[in-house]
Amino acid sequence: MIADYPIWEPCVANSVLIAVVSILHVFVSHFAIGGGLYLVVAETWARRKNDLDHLAYLERFSRFFALITLVFGAVTGVGIWVTIGLIHPTGAKWLVNNFVWGWAIDWVFFFVEIAAALIYYYGWKRLPASTHLALGWIYFIAALMSLFVINGILTFMLTPGEWLITGSFWDGFFNPTFWPSLVFRTVVALALAGLYAVFTVAGEKKADVKIRILRGNGLLILTALALAVPCGWWYFHAVPETIRSAILPGSIPATALQIMLFCAALLFALTLLGTVLFPRHAGYVSGAILLLCALLSVGGFEWAREALRKPYIIHGFIYSNGLLAADAQKAPFIQPRTISFSTGSRGRDLFLANCRSCHTISGYSSLADRLAGWDKEYIENSLPRLKYFIGPMPPFAGNKADAALLATYLISLADPDPLSVDSSLSEPDRAQIVFHRRCGVCHTMGGFRAIGAAFQGLDTGDAKATIKSLPDLTEAMPPFTGSKEELGLLIPYLTGGGQ
User: Fold this and answer.
1) Which helix (H) or strand (E) holds 318?
2) Annotation: CATH topology of 330-413
3) How far apart, in whole angstroms, are the C-alpha atoms of residue 81 and residue 104?
4) How far is the C-alpha of 346 from the C-alpha of 405, rounded, in Å?
């Protein structure tokens, strides 16, 4: 059912660790693509104009380019492999098995990139201009082809398309979002090339040269950002509606997209002001601010893409806890989950195997605060119903006995019940806490999967009877196991429309 690997438990949330490593890598690797084109086109232009000042700047820029992309980019690229291999070994196995030749080809392109970039940098004064430019084009083509390969695998994880039926390499590679993502990422790479160049030109001592290069870079950035709008729209609508439906108000994907759009708009405005309209005062600080805006925008995009994929590693095929979607259809399971690598506590083993891929005990996406006030019976009944939660959750891989053991362990992690320890809470606040605890994991009052209308106007007796009988109406509802106090707070909240 699930490949049994040792569980790695880093000191931070798995998703945070992957995000930090991957976003930094994307921010540099896309510069490696756009920067390659930037260098060879700018060098061609400068040589035709016999612009020695511009050529001198490009030589300095190529040193910065080589250090950032070949050193930092390579280290973070390896870091991604190490991180996903330890956190999601089953998912990494499927990606390697299905795209082994794709990965191999990408490594060949990367080797060509390294060789061409190093020779290009050291060849400014050692090679004929035509040979030097040829090396620049070789580097850019290799970098672009590397993006071509990686893009197919990245988009496959979100939109595997016909691969789920055929298992074909090509169906998985040329999936529904392959082309829009490739075009969008290429445009982003061009914008990043201009942004890194804006930062590095701050050290140029000749004011007229600095202003000229800054304005050229600014126009490149603004053009790329303008092109990113229709390209992003194309990409967004290439994602199937069944996946886009997760973008709900207040959800993680929606928040991430808002961050991306806000930072991109701010980047456009600051670039226009700092490089085109008032370039004379641009320096390292202003260049760093532009790069920070770009990093946050790229981070928002990658965060939204990853959040849309949840709770899967490969959408529709394998969940984040390593459970295959085909096996999840057999739930509820009769046999207990097999875990060979034990900590000595079955409950903790089940937590590590089922929950730790997304949750921490305390910190980002923590369970301690979420479970505050929950009782063991409620947790035990909720575990087989995780697929009904508003937040995307993989099915629980285990049987009833496993659910009972995991519930016991989770109770030991929970923070104290705020209803018991915080006497300053008002009656409406206490009622809202109870609603989110007993109903809000699956429902809202008037939005997604709303239940407010079903209780509106009911008297206390009818509302109480409805709550008690919900498990008899649908298997999706666990029995109400709250205290009399909780029930007394919940009924007025439901019947009053959340007031």
Assistant:
1) strand 318-319
2) Cytochrome Bc1 Complex; Chain D, domain 2 (1.10.760)
3) 14
4) 7
CA-closest candidate to residue 42, choices 140, 119, 145: 140
Which tokens sit at 17? 């660790």
In this prediction, residue 20 carries a pLDDT of 93
3-state secondary structure of 366: strand
Distance CA 116, CA 122 (A): 10
Task: Please check whether the two domains, 14-319 and 330-413, share a CATH topology.
Answer: no
Contact call for residues 46 and 58 (beta carbons, < 8 A): yes
Q: Structure tokens of 170?
A: 């090509």
pTM of the model: 0.92
Residue with tokens 């007993």: 438
Record the tokens describing residue 272, joined without a space: 């226009």
d(CA 45, CA 463): 76
Quick one: tokens of 230?
């229709």
Class of domain 14-319: mainly alpha
- For the chain, give every domain's residue range: 14-319, 330-413, 418-495
User: Cα separation of 173 and 170, whole Å?
Assistant: 5
Q: What is the pLDDT of residues 127-158, one digit of tens each?
A: 999 999 999 999 999 999 999 999 999 999 99
**Separation between Cα atoms, residue 287 and residue 197, nearest integer Å:** 9
Average pLDDT, the chain: 93
Query: pLDDT tens, 346-397?
Result: 999 999 989 988 899 988 889 999 999 999 999 999 999 998 898 888 999 8
Q: Is 273 exposed, middle or buried (0-12, 13-18, 19+ CB in 10 A)?
A: middle
Contact 194, 226 (CB under 8 A): no
pLDDT at 473: 80
